[in-house]
Specification:
This protein has helices at about 1-20, 20-45, 45-65, 65-80, 85, 95-125, 135-160, 165-175, 175-185, 200-210, 220-240, 245-250. It is mostly helical. It has one domain (about 1-250). Helix 4 (about 65-80) runs antiparallel to helix 8. It is elongated.
Length: about 250
């Protein structure tokens, strides 16, 4: 099983890297947040606004890093009529989806980590340093968000019949973390205690708390990461189940 999953993941990753335009597009999306926050910090020196925007753009980076990969791995293959030959192999549909999920998640993680690295440089320049002890907690809470984003994008890709249709829906999906993030920035009083364990909402609250000098307890961060990873697995299972439908396998 693991060998099959890794073969599918390797194939999807290599194919995606060949599309230079998509890689450059994802790179620009990932660095868009640090660039905007850098300009804001130069213009107004508003630390709270910069921190709020940082958390929003970090959420968005998790969703845009693997967007181009997700739209091609299933919807693109349906359009090229190469999905059916793949599904005809004696391999479980779950393994195929898992391999595609790992490839998409790899690009999502890369975009997310690049985004965080850019913010770390900018905030260090501004004299704001995140304690090294907070890094494990941040990784436990934030990185699983990229896996959830990849799972959601693959599920949406199974609904679409072409890359163009997938691009439309996946581009709209980016507004979900952006809208949630902006809501929390402008209405911080609306946050509730249980928000800390919800995917997307929890990650933004953790980022804002850390950058404002709050605690970096590993327990709540790990709980948030586990909840996010659990939701990602459920979404991925739903995507795998869709590959058993006749209109997905034989339809165009």
């Amino acid at each position: 099983m693991l060998n099959t999953v890794l073969v599918v993941a390797r194939k999807e990753a290599i194919d995606s890297l060949r599309d230079t335009r998509s890689v450059i597009s994802s790179l620009m999306y990932a660095l868009m947040g640090p660039a905007v926050v850098f300009m804001v910090s130069l213009a107004v020196r508003a630390d709270k606004v910069a921190i709020g925007m940082m958390s929003v753009f970090t959420l968005v980076a998790a969703f845009v890093g693997g967007m181009n990969v997700a739209m091609d791995t299933i919807a693109g293959e349906r359009e090229r009529q190469s999905l059916l030959p793949l599904l005809m192999n004696p391999v479980r549909r779950r393994d195929i989806v898992l391999g595609k999920w790992l490839a998409t998640g790899l690009f999502s993680l890369a975009g997310l980590m690049l985004n965080l690295a850019g913010f770390a440089i900018i905030f260090a320049r501004a004299g704001m340093h995140l304690p090294w002890l907070a890094v494990p907690a941040m990784a436990a809470a934030i990185l699983p968000l990229a896996l959830l984003a990849a799972a959601i994008q693959l599920l949406i890709s199974t609904v679409c019949r072409s890359s163009k249709e997938a691009q439309t829906y996946l581009s709209m999906l980016v507004f979900l973390p952006m809208g949630i993030g902006m809501f929390q920035v402008f209405f911080p009083g609306a946050a509730r205690g249980w928000f800390a364990f919800l995917p997307v909402l929890g990650q933004q609250l953790q980022l804002a708390r850390w950058m404002q000098g709050g605690g970096a307890a590993i327990g709540p961060a790990a709980a948030l990461g586990c909840c996010t990873a659990g939701v990602a697995l459920l979404v991925m299972e739903a995507a795998a189940n869709r590959l058993h439908r006749d209109e997905i396998v034989y339809g165009n």
